[in-house]
Specification:
Strand content: 35-45%
Number of domains: 2
Largest sheet: 7 strands, antiparallel
Structural class: alpha+beta
Amino acid sequence: MKLSFCMWMSLILIGSASPVCAAIESQLAEKATVISKVIQGAGHDSAMLDFKGPTGRSTSGGTLVQQILSDELSHKGIRVEKLSADIQINVKMTISQSVQNGLPIITLAFEFGLTDTDEKPVGDINSKLVVTNRNEIARITGIPLETPNDSVGKGLVPAISVALRKPEQKVNGPQGTVIRARDGGQFGMEVLVKDSPRPVSTVNGLAFVDLKQEDKCKIRLINDADYTVAVELTLDGLNSFHFSPDKKNFWLVPPKNQLVIGGWQINEKDAEEFMIVPLAESAAAKANSIGNVGVISAGFYRAYSEGETIPESDDPEFIGHSPSVGFGTGATIDQQIRRVKVTIGANLRGLIPVRYSKPAL
């Protein structure tokens, strides 16, 4: 799968849809079609979305699923309301683990249903969506993880299993501000305010950074691996290219290198600052996708240059694949990029989330 990316000095991006999300988007689009027909057939054009995740898990509640489902319903004429509606879409996520042919298997299952204000079933959409793709499971659960270099592909399932049971994000670096998925991890992220790294704390194994309204932020992506990585950077669940013509892109970070992203890319020359604003003014709220507000996330994949040999285990052609503030847009800044071509490996190598809306303990 050939993808393009852009580069200007230290700023590098890759263009094309995420290899992780394509399958889940397609399945949820089908569910949204069925749901929207039932809602409209009952004489309504809006609904609330109630999502229940498994208890005792580190998952952020399937925020990726909520975002995609909300977007798909909106495209089909159904408004997803935040406070009240006559119809409620109920989504329940469960996680199970098993062993098949001696290998660990993780399965996510989503059950869908509709109820009215009296909690009586509406229509007959009782159905289930099952996800077994390890990349999608990692992204849906939003857990911090990183796979060892010598276990590409097969190492991701054990990493997910461990992270689900007990996430253990690490914070290191000279100032104690570099966030990593695990101890000794090769990938890292820092949140900068006024060009200074913001202090990080950990709660129940998850990283948190304190951001206040009107803070203007930059994100530093760190690659200590000996190969180039493509990084999908999202803020409040939105890709950092959400405001550009290509809404889903990747940033490229060379081996043993770092990259600082200063804002939402809007074209090949300019970006708009990442700025903390009231939730109602946030980019996620305007996109009617607030399920993942409060989380900055970086997904790391290996990037292969033209002519570079891709192992079969990482070949995309072979494998297939309630806060009060949020991130809005600030002033326009200079952030130039240009396009080149690489191939993005099929396997997620690392996922680093950081929460900036700390929950009450």
